[in-house]
UniProtKB/TrEMBL annotation:
PANTHER family: PROTEIN RSEC. Pfam families: RseC_MucC (PF04246). InterPro entries: RseC, SigmaE_reg_RseC_MucC. This is Positive regulator of sigma(E), RseC/MucC. It comes from the Bacteria. The chain crosses the membrane at residues 66-91, 97-117. Keywords: Membrane, Transmembrane, Transmembrane helix. It comes from Peptoanaerobacter stomatis.
Length: 144
């Protein structure tokens, strides 16, 4: 996935890049940390191309990494919840619907806690963050 962004400031070896929220973002808050009503997202990315303030840059993130991040955020809780339903309904409580619903929510909460406990390890992996692939020449229109 490629996006254009404008470098708004430099912090050491990182660049703070302002990017338009795309329709692909939907209501995902992975980048914006809960700023779902904002038109722009500010991302901290490694400044590998020595971009300066006001430069327009192309950000790139590999599609498999986007899919893996989506699976971690959405897939694991969903699978955990379905596992909880099946376990509660067929194994533990022998076709008791209320017990299976409770079991599903217990497994959902466990999956959220597991993801939260591994959040630092996930954040430490650079594959889940976009990188600056190149600077865009100045004759192109800057991000509005």
């Amino acid at each position: 996935m490629k996006e254009l962004g404008e470098v708004i400031r430099i912090e050491g070896k990182n660049a703070i890049v302002r990017v338009n929220r795309s329709s692909a973002c939907g209501t995902c808050t992975a980048c914006s940390m809960g700023m779902e009503n904002k038109k722009f997202i500010e991302l901290t990315v490694s400044n590998t191309v020595n971009a300066s303030e006001k430069d327009i840059v192309e950000l790139d993130m590999e599609t498999p990494n986007i899919l893996l991040a989506a699976f971690i955020i959405y897939g694991i809780p969903l699978i955990s919840m379905l596992f909880g339903v099946m376990l509660g309904y067929y194994v533990l409580f022998k076709e008791n619907v209320l017990a299976s619903v409770i079991s599903a929510f217990v497994f959902l909460i466990i999956s959220f806690v597991a993801i939260r406990l591994n959040e630092e390890k996930i954040k430490a992996s650079s594959k889940f963050f976009p990188t600056i692939s190149r600077k865009i020449p100045q004759e192109y229109t800057p991000i509005a």
